Amino acid sequence: MTRFHAAAATAAAFDLALLFAEAGAVIALRTWMLGANLAPAGEAQRMINEKQAAFAKAAVAAWEASFSAAWQHPLDPARATFAGAAAWTASLTRKTRSNRRRLVRGTFSLQ
After folding, report:
1. C-alpha angle with apex 84: 63 to 56, nearest 5 degrees?
2. DSSP string, 1-68
3. What is the pLDDT of residues 72-104, one digit of tens each?
């Protein structure tokens, strides 16, 4: 394994762990807000509907990054794999982080 691959694997693992932490926070906030009847109107429907678009956008980002890396480095398929993984997690992390921020803002503005 080259230094690039070791660094890319470590970065991919860290990014995935960060995504899982963000997703867990969003799940906890939504569960609490829906259970306490504090969720914004339409939140239950939103949490279902937004997943298809988020995963489709992440899949396109991963495909584009993988294709670009494979085109630039045709003899290094691992580079394309790591590029796709990074793009996929970055796309989903952005969406998850924005949901967490929105939910936290709504939670602490209730009075």
Report:
1. 50
2. --HHHHHHHHHHHHHHHHHHHHHHHHHHHHHHHHHTT-SPTTHHHHHHHHHHHHHHHHHHHHHHHHHH
3. 999 989 999 999 999 999 999 999 999 999 999
